[in-house]
Amino acid sequence: MSATEPPVRAGVTLRVNGVPHELEIDTRVSLLDLLREHLGLTGAKKGCDQGQCGACTILINGRRANACLALAVAHDGAEITTVEGLAAEGELHPLQRAFIECDGFQCGYCTPGQLCSAVAMLEEVRAGWPSAVSVRAGGGAAEEAATLSPADIRERMSGNLCRCGAYVNIVAAIAEVAR
Amino acid sequence: MALRGGTPGATYLGGGTNLVDLMRVGVERPAMLVDVTGAVGAGITDTEAGGLRIGAAVRNSVLAADPRVRERYPVLAQALLDGASGQLRNLATTGGNLLQRTRCPYFYDVTKPCNKRSPGSGCPARHGEHHNLALFGHSTHCVATHPSDMAVALAALDATVHVRGPAGRRSMAVSELHRLPGAHPEFDTVLSPGDLITAVELPPLPAARNSLYRKVRERASFAFALVSIAAVLEMRADTVGEVRVALGGVAHKPWRARRVEAALAGAPLTVERMVAAAEAELEVAAPLPLTAYKVELVRNLIVAALSALGGAP
Fold first, then answer.
1. Based on the domain organization, do A98 and A174 belong to the same domain?
2. Do A102 and A174 reside in the same domain of the chain?
3. Whole domain around residue A22: which residue ranges?
4. Fold entry, domain B210-309
5. Is A173 a member of any domain?
6. pTM above the 0.95 mark?
7. Are the beta carbons of B13 and A128 separated by less than 8 Å?
């Protein structure tokens, strides 16, 4: 029986911020490197390249994920949203406005990941998804969605680190939009 | 499976949240990855028996959010939500979560000896940095722990793992999937090359409606357990009817605390009895110099978790 020769390069089709792209890439390329190096979308940042910092957070089919651990070829056909795609028609996303108003960043390196993560997190809340905090708080799913406490925001955002320590204002910005 | 069988060194890919990381640091070096997220089930279905069948490709976040899991098996929802981060839970799959590898720092460092990664090279952890490694069931060859929270809940629930392999289909209790290290720590599980986890099945367990997961760790979130507990408790009048306890962070596999269960079944639930039950389990603990603190944590967690479930103040 002959061994199957694994492909070194493969074609992948992705819709990034509404724009379709067809690329031929090395099968080992992560979504993060594809976005940054192949498409010039440098919003998502490579903070750790191991899924531990969240600076690379993007949306894959509307769900937040670490782009650094996602092999591009494994997400063929996906809809990708990056921070560059949050502002619609030149208008800042409400969360981007809130980050500015609440002073939710210093160096800004973690900020694209924080924004994408928070956008998707609020959708998770709207969809009734529990968190480690809310699942133990008692009450039903509807009650959890209605009262997103700062502790719950922190738990849901625990995958996004900020070395400048802007957490207090990041939580405030998210709470502002969640209202 | 034919694809994988035809290529030596081929590995299955789920969400990639552990495998891609291990590839990047050189611990895993597959010749080929076969993405199985489309090949195994991604649905959660009620079984005729009244349990739940979870496709191996179901994402951790989706499983935790399922109303049936939250209502009938809350320990599993809590365990999933206590693990990783929101981003990781969206990619991680049921099958992949079971098969994730230890986070022992020597295993992860290809410049260090490690009997699991490189059989026969030695175990520097035993006399090195092992503060978050095993308390139970370790060997002179390996003191690594299994890092999954989900697996601990599944062990307490007596879940079944369905496997499809070159020799056909088979099933096993989740507590039989992972091995103790013994003389061959290079084998995390009893699976053979080519074996593919297709589903995990939860049996009907009315007692599981009263269950919880508690995780003790060095950070408030996004950190592995030092010790964790999955507990199920059903009281019948004033005596213990059904009791399940599984411990995480303490062994090469989720540690089903059967001595605790045997000591408590059919008797009133008092603090004295819970402490005695914990001591019975701890009789087989083998603390290392830096894991001795886990002994007290285990004892306290058992009492706290069962007290909370038993309605004790």
1. yes
2. yes
3. 9-85
4. Enolase-like; domain 1 (3.30.390)
5. yes
6. yes
7. no
Residue from A34, A49, A117, A158 whose CB has the most chain B CBs within 10 Å, to mutate:
A158
Strands B10-13 and B44-46: unpaired
Q: What is the pLDDT of residues B159-215, one digit of tens each?
A: 999 999 998 999 999 999 999 999 999 999 999 999 999 999 999 999 999 999 999
Chain A residues near residue B35 by CB distance under 8 angstroms: 74
**Cα–Cα distance for residue pair B276/B263, rounded to 1 Å:** 8
DSSP assignment of B62-124 equals HHHH-HHHHHH-HHHHHHHHHSS-HHHHHH-BHHHHHHPPP--HHHH-TTS--TTTSTTS--G
| Alpha-carbon distances, residue A173 vs A74, A102, A111 (angstroms) | 34, 6, 12
pLDDT digit string, tens, across residues B240-290 = 999 999 999 999 999 999 999 999 999 999 999 999 999 999 999 999 999
- Option in B61, B78, B85 nearest A54 (CB): B85
How far apart CA B115 and CA B118 sit, in angstroms, is 5
Quick one: CATH architecture of B37-202? Answer: 2-Layer Sandwich (3.30)
Question: A151 to chain B: nearest residue by CA?
Answer: B220
Does residue A65 belong to the interface with chain B, where contact is any CB pair within 8 Å? yes
Helices A94-101, A111-126: axis angle to 10 degrees equals 120
* Residue A70 sits at the chain B interface (C-beta within 8 Å): yes
CA distance to partner chain A, nearest, from residue B12 (Å): 12
